[in-house]
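User: I'm curious what two different proteins look like when written out as structure tokens. Can you demonstrate?

Assistant: Sure. I'll show them one after the other, since each token string lines up with its own sequence. Here's the first protein:
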Amino acid sequence: MPQAFAALYEAHARVVEHYIRLRIDDVDLAQDLTAETFTIAWEKYSAGTAITRGWLLKTARNLIGNEYQRRTRVRERTQRSIAAQLVVAQHEIDDIADVELKAAIARLRPADALVLKLTYWCGLPAAEAAQFLGCTTVSYWQRLARARVALRAELGAPGTAIL
């Protein structure tokens, strides 16, 4: 290593590291970025570029910016990963709730299960569901009310508004 570059390093390494440490709250990373700053400086020095304290600080600033961008990317990836895991967990919870609901409906009288399925799975309006069942709309609403009460009892939560 030429004496001139060694003198440059001795004169500016602490200033560069301090500059980086003020912006990056990680001693090891600040040392790594300082070393990277001087590696880049050595390459430029070898190619004939004049290296000054300002040049070193500007290079360090660029490396700090790269670190900030890296941290942002990591944070965004982490947030996306957590969001995806929450979606999967919610689907698992929904699946469990779905299984419990389907099991409870399976334990109902077939007539009650049919009224619930026509209403909530098929989405039929009251008049169409009544026509399908061969009863009046008023009778359909009474059947639906009885089926809801039976379902609440099967789910073990009497009086709660599930449906």
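Here's a second, unrelated protein for contrast:
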Amino acid sequence: MNAKTLLPPLLLCAACMTQRPPPQPALPTITPPAVSAPITILPAPIDEVGPLLAYHQSLRKMTQGELLKELSGLSLQQKTPKNLLQSGMVLALTRSPADLARAQAQFDAVATSSEADATPFKSLAQMLSSYCAEQRRLYDHVDKLNTQLKDGQRKNEQLNDMLEALK
């Protein structure tokens, strides 16, 4: 190939390489909205229910004597929502229907309290109160069944006595 035939394509390629691409249109600038006050990051709330659940687990391992001793220690402390929940937990575990009613009353007091200290405990108190109500219902049902059993046993003894008399 000769130089005359190569020169025009080379010049054309060189011309293409030296041209600049067309300028891009300028993007509009967006200004952030003005913030009137600095943003403050609140610390995460302290979990106050978790330690109470752990306390309940430790109560479940105690004997009746230890539970009564714990209850007497709690009764000497100031009546705060947390203290009411703790003593209610102890009362609920003594397995006495009267204590169960007292425990439910304490849970209800925390659940319906308007104190700011009671706010983190309200849902736990409501749950424990419903647990106590269900437990009381079961105790009543057991008492009813025991009464029916005693009546059945008494009737059985009467029938056995009648059978023996007929022999």
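A detail about the second structure: The CA atoms of residues 10 and 123 lie 84 Å apart.
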